[in-house]
Amino acid sequence: MVRTLDGTELSRVMRAEMAQDVAALQAAGVTPGLSVVLVGNNPASQAYVASKTRACEALGMRGQTLNLPEDVSKDELFAVIDRLNQDPTVHGILVQLPLPAHLPYKAVLEHIRPEKDVDGFHPLNAGLAFVGDPRAFVPCTPAGIMEMLRRENVPTRGKHVVIVGRSLIVSKPLASLLMAPGPDATVTLTHRHTPDLATYTRQADILIVAVGKQNLITADMVKPGVVVIDVGQNRVPDTSSDRGYRMVGDVDYDAVRQVASAITPVPGGVGPMTITMLLANTIQAARQTHAKQA
Ligand code: NAD
After folding, report:
1. Can you tell me the distance from the alpha carbon of 200 to that of 20, in angstroms, rounded to the nearest whole number?
2. What span, in angstroms and rounded, lies between the C-alpha atoms of 70 and 36?
3. What share of the chain in percent tops pLDDT 90?
4. At CA 12, angle to CA 6 and CA 64, rounded to 5?
5. Once rounded to an integer, what is the mean pLDDT over residues 225-248?
6. For a pLDDT cut of 70, what percent of the chain falls above it?
7. CB neighbours of 82 closer than 8 A, spacing ≥ 6?
8. From the candidates 116, 117, 119, 284, which is the catalytic residue?
9. pLDDT, tens digit, for every residue of 59-75?
10. Element containing residue 186 per DSSP (H, E)
């Protein structure tokens, strides 16, 4: 029987645990606060940001969104980040990506104080995560996948994990987390220039796909019993939905499900875990700030 790795249910359990952490911090006089900076009116970004701040409020945390116009200048955006960097009630700062092309996103991410960089995209945090330093904020999607594998008792030691995609946001940090002492996996990272992708995916005990292409992975590309983690989020037109679209992953879910031993759905798999780890990182930031002040 194939297992569905249910990120919504796991998140519910984790968020109930985290609500206690928030209550303990509040009792010590600290309410963890996340500020999300949203530039422009991209509807997908607006939806992501709304779900992040809603999730904060549901846990008793402070969730704030700062909407800036599409044509905001780099200096104006930096001034907003400077203000949040200085604000003691703001423990986590997140600038929603993608940014409009005129804004240098790397410089913007580097402008966030590393202690408030709950997305884990600042080079200092990326480096700390790479060397396995516990002070690092690990990017939320890889952290959520690691937590899902751990809580679902999916063994990684000595297993061959094949990751499709090489992004800095998901795949590269995930590769380094999986190969570290503890998880102890053997990792193969593939990308758009990998010839004959199926040669690699068929070897996977655990297959993680983070590309953004519907049906990239078909049933003939996986071996029986594989554990499949589908990170992809693709909008496909759907007239039966009020929104006119539905979300699908990168994996041909119905067909691959027949072959796999466990698989994440889209939606309801990696997505909710990502937001849950953002909450966890914000609580960690609040705790670290509080410990320094105490
Ligand atoms: P990205 O766009 O930065 O990179 C995509 C990667 O896919 C690249 O490394 C590229 O080399 C690789 N690629 C492209 N075509 C390929 C092919 N034919 N074969 C093999 N590799 C190929 O990716 P990202 O930011 O990691 O996002 C990937 C997907 O994951 C997107 O759909 C995104 O929306 C989704 N995502 C979901 C979450 C979540 O919480 N569920 C979080 C982050 C990203």
Report:
1. 43
2. 15
3. 97
4. 120
5. 96
6. 100
7. 111
8. 119
9. 999 999 999 999 999 99
10. strand 186-190
Residue 290: pLDDT band with limits 50, 70, 90: confident
Q: State the amino acid at position 169 in one-letter form.
A: I
CA atoms of 67 and 253, how far apart (whole Å)? 36
pTM: 0.97
Catalytic residue check, 119: yes
CA of 109 to the centre of ligand 1 (A): 19
Q: Which superfamily is assigned to 140-271 in CATH?
A: NAD(P)-binding Rossmann-like Domain (3.40.50.720)
Above 80 in pLDDT, residue 294?
A: no
Residues 6+ apart with CB under 8 A from 178: 146, 156, 161, 185, 187
The reply to whether CATH 3.80.30.20 applies to domain 29-113 is: no
**Nearest-atom index, ligand 1, CA of 249:** 32
Calpha distance 248→10 (Å, rounded): 20
Written in H, E and C, the secondary structure of 61-80 is CEEEEEEECCCCCHHHHHHH
Q: What's the token pair of residue 271?
A: 């997505």
Strands 186-190 vs 160-164: parallel, antiparallel or unpaired: parallel
Query: Is there a common fold for 29-113 and 140-271?
Result: yes
Place of tokens 């998880």: 183
CA-wise closest residue to 285 among 61, 109, 53, 4: 61
Nearest ligand 1 atom to alpha carbon 194: 20
Residues within a 6 A CB radius of ligand 1? 141, 164-167, 169-171, 190-192, 194, 197, 210-213, 216, 231-234, 270-271, 274
52 a catalytic residue: yes
User: 260 in helix, strand or coil?
Assistant: coil
Pick from 209, 169, 217: which is nearest to 188 by CA?
Answer: 209
Write down the pLDDT at residue 69.
98
Q: Which whole number is the average pLDDT over 243-272?
A: 97
Sorted by where each begins, the domain ranges of the chain are 29-113, 140-271
Question: CA gyration radius for the chain?
Answer: 19
